[in-house]
Amino acid sequence: MSETAKIELGGTTYEFPVIEGTENEKAIDISNLRAATGYVTLDTGYKNTGATTSAITFLDGEEGILKYRGYPIEELAEKATFIEVAYLLIYGNLPTVIELETFRSNITKHTLVHEDMKQFFEAYPAKAHPMGVLSSMVCSLSTFYPESLDPNRSAQAKDLTILRLLAKLPTLAAWAYKNSTRHPFMYPKNEFDYCKNFLYMMFAMPTEEFKVDPVVVDALNKLFILHADHEQNCSTSTVRIVGSSQANLYASISAGISALWGPLHGGANQEVIEMLEKIHADGGDVDKWVLKAKDKEDSFRLMGFGHRVYKNFDPRAKIIKKACDDILTKLGVNDPLLAIAKKLEQVALEDEYFKSRNLYPNVDFYSGIIYKALGIPTEMFTVMFAIGRLPGWIAQWKEMTENKEPIGRPRQIYTGEVLREYVPIEKR
Ligand code: SDX
User: Which ligand 1 atom sits closest to the C-alpha of 235?
Assistant: First the structure.
């Protein structure tokens, strides 16, 4: 007999089915709640609410487990390439040699951006935040590819849009940076792999030969893999709900980029470095800033700490922290911010306030220190997160469309005025 949940309302007992996932997670299926009882549920921030079922990513917040399509993140970060992981997330399995080569070569065919789009960049001020540029540029791609406006046109059309997005996002991101420096745009070089090509477009100059340390390319590959998907987080849920209206993929991803920008989400990686720089400038008094983070009267939060799901260490943070030491040593970078970050972590993890709230470093706490060592400017940190997260957003959108999920439209409980009569302005 499968498990059910009984709810007693107004003297009547209602029964609802319990569903169980492949990792033994359980949910009460309330799809029929309102029809049966007239009640809806209320769960601000969806802290207890599952919006969908998904076969893409599994994470266990208590155990600090993260797996993409069943593969542990630790293995993928160590052994895979980012493009391989992108294929895994989007198409469900690790690619064969032929599948990977076809995927990689198809991506290189679409790395150029329509020349007319360069005028858009020139209209932005140098101080434009690259996340604002990226979100608008991605949505603007839909205006150059009208056949993408119908997301259900065909599997081939869907795959072509997916390839175009994966191929063009690094170009758009690098050009947003070049536009801020007013340096000449660098066109993609198809002989480079995905990460090296992005670094080339970011840092190469037409007057010099481009050289990049393989350590930097490997670090970027690892960071992109660690950011590639994270089940139903804020930006992914945004991509899914925008896509559920049958808006095109470019518009859905553009919305995801905007959601990621927030300092409570992907924008935290920029906030962490700015916080560490503030603490450094203030003399490095970590205890003082931990006190501020605990003070309810003080709006300061320890950025890069805490997580809605991980009530144990974020497995990505562990990998990035270790990579920090390796990469900075290999690059000969001695960044005082790393020592401050480690001291901050140590003080916080011994403090009752953080322990009692299960607040641990998350993926954003150490990533900025690596980006800084790679020469990525602070304002580009969340753009790096977006490039890494793109395959996950695409995979989740594709799953939602293929499962023919209904348009997302949550309910509410109204708490406003009940009935009022219109009063002409002269009598108000
Ligand atoms: C990402 O969802 C994902 O998967 C996201 C992500 C992904 O890969 O997509 O993992 C990426 O967004 C990581 C999170 C990046 N954000 C930050 O680092 C910003 C700082 N962290 C917080 O703002 C906060 O921890 C959140 C937003 C991450 C989670 O917030 P919740 O789950 O809504 O928890 P909460 O704000 O209700 O906090 C619970 C308690 C509160 O104290 P009390 O009211 O119980 O007294 O913990 C406190 C909070 O004040 N708290 C913090 C804190 N985070 C939570 N106090 C100080 N510093 C912090 N960082």
Answer: 9
Cβ neighbors of 25 (< 8 A, separation 6 or more) are none
The CATH number linked to 182 is 1.10.580.10
Would residue 287 show up in a list of annotated catalytic residues for this protein? no
Residue closest via CA to ligand 1's atom 28 equals: 307
Please, are residues 88 and 95 in contact by the beta-carbon 8 Å criterion?
A: yes
Please indicate, yes or no, if residue 128 is contained in any of the structural domains.
yes
What is the pTM for the complete model shown?
0.97
Nearest to 241 by CA among 75, 406, 11, 35: 406
| Known catalytic residue at 307 | yes
Q: How far apart, in whole angstroms, are the C-alpha atoms of residue 272 and residue 302?
A: 8
Q: How many structural domains does the chain have?
A: 3
Pocket test for ligand 1, best of 290, 311, 362, 365 (most atoms within 8 A of CB): 362
302 neighbors 359 (Cβ within 8 angstroms): yes
Q: List beta partners, residue 66.
A: 59
Q: Tell me which of 65, 83, 104 is where a domain ends.
A: 65
Longest CA span, the chain: 80
Q: What is the rounded CA–CA span in Å between residue 383 and residue 261?
A: 8
**Is the Cα torsion angle 274, 277, 283, 288 positive or negative in sign?**
positive
What is the band of 312 on the pLDDT scale with cuts at 50, 70, 90?
confident
**Amino acid 101: pLDDT:** 98
Q: Mean of the pLDDT values across residues 107-135?
A: 96
Burial class (CB in 10 A: 0-12, 13-18, 19+), 153: middle
- What's the rounded Cα separation, in Å, for the pair 366 and 149? 39
